[in-house]
Amino acid sequence: MRRVRPSSHHTLGDMSAEEDTAEVVRETLDERVPALVHPGWAVRMPWLVQGTTTRGSGKEPFDLGRFAGASAPDRLDERWGHLLSATRVERAVLGRQVHGAEVRVHSDLGPGLHFDDVCDGHVTGQAGVLLAVTVADCVPVFLAAPDAGAVAVLHAGWRGAAAGVLERGLAVLKESLEVSVGDVLVHLGPSICGACYEVGPEVFEALEQSVPPTPLAIDLRDILARRAERAGVPTSAITVSTHCTRCTGSGLFSHRAGDRERQVGFIGARS
Ligand SMILES: [Zn+2]
């Protein structure tokens, strides 16, 4: 059963404490770069740069996957340059993702693009840094602490979720920037939805769900929302994207649909 509730007009700030399910949010298209942006976060945190890129409307898909090999390196450099200029930041970081729970803190990053760390999550309190994860069905998990000006982004497929990448991201925010879990907003971004993501019993087992005898669809964002709640994030601080990489026609790349290209989930604070 879906626990997410339909989108409503109220803002994140005035939600009732009685709400017991995460709010569903339909991200809107940005004009400067093909990206789906959380509208409530954009209003609440004007200093924030956040979104998930799409394939765009150009002749070439807006692929940003550094390690997937679908685009020539010079075209990738151009698109990353476009993303940075559109978001008006001078530095970006993307890890070599391994479906693990390693989360890095970036505190003194120089200008340019940084692609060297092996990790699945990034945290920073430094303004002017764009943290990014590549995805194409997996969940881009966005964390923002408005009072501290701290942000994080995590790459969570089922393996990463089972390995605890979300909990690790929250722990690293606390350890490195003294951000309390209760002060963190969590957004589970565009990814494969609970109707489209059929997986084997081993995935249910790894995610500590009741194990079906045969393959069945699983809602990874719902599981991540519950894990966030269990870690101490208030339910009213959690939102879930309505966009699916397979079924909502949102112009997203899908690994399961055979796409080799990748979108990125990005977050940062303007300098
Ligand atoms: Zn779907």
Describe this structure in words.
This protein is an alpha/beta fold and 271 residues long. The chain has a single domain (24-269), classed as CNF1/YfiH-like putative cysteine hydrolases, CATH 3.60.140. It is built from six helices and 16 strands. It has helices at 39-44, 73-87, 158-163, 165-177, 201-206, 220-231, and strands spanning 23-25, 28-29, 35-37, 48-53, 91-94, 103-106, 112-114, 121-124, 129-135, 139-145, 150-156, 185-188, 198-199, 216-217, 238-241, 263-269. Strands 1-15-12-10-11-8-6 form a seven-stranded mixed beta sheet. A seven-stranded mixed beta sheet has the order 2-3-4-16-9-5-7. Strands 13-14 form a two-stranded antiparallel ribbon. It starts with 22 loop residues before the first strand and ends with a strand. 46% of the residues are buried. The model is unreliable at 7-18 (pLDDT under 50). The structure holds zinc ion (ZN). Residues 193, 195-196, 244, 246-247 line the site of zinc ion.
Q: Please, what is the average pLDDT?
A: 92
Query: How many domains comprise the coordinates?
Result: 1
Task: Give the C-alpha Rg.
Answer: 17 Å
Which topology does CATH recognise? CNF1/YfiH-like putative cysteine hydrolases
Separate helix tally:
6
Helix content: 10-25%
Assigned CATH superfamily: CNF1/YfiH-like putative cysteine hydrolases
Specify the biggest β-sheet: 7 strands, mixed
Number of strands: 16
